[in-house]
Here is the input.
Amino acid sequence: MSPITTHVLDLARGRPAAGVAVTLERAGADGAWTVRGAGATDANGRISDLAGAPAEAGIHRLTFETGAYFAAQRVPAFHPRVVVTFEVKDPGEHHHVPLLIAPFGYSTYRGS
Here is the structure.
């Protein structure tokens, strides 16, 4: 399993959000972002193999293409994408970042 995983739930439909494109990036010392992994959520709304390499300490971000997800369902939405920035302090720990989405809002937290 990847050291950084995610799970997307569609609160409006009451089910996992399948097919959401997600990109994982890490900020370098110069502030430039480097892509560490990318994928799309499966039927369960999960991506378990987002980054094959061990996590590194530092600032990371996950970009979720929520606008494309809702557009594919012909549902108007407010956020074309959601960017979640977080810090990995202990690379030995698993970092799970769930995202709860609805057409006009979202929420996130550190999962287990």
Observations:
- Residues 4-108 form a domain with the Immunoglobulin-like fold (CATH 2.60.40.180).
- The mean pLDDT is 94.
- The radius of gyration is 14 Å.
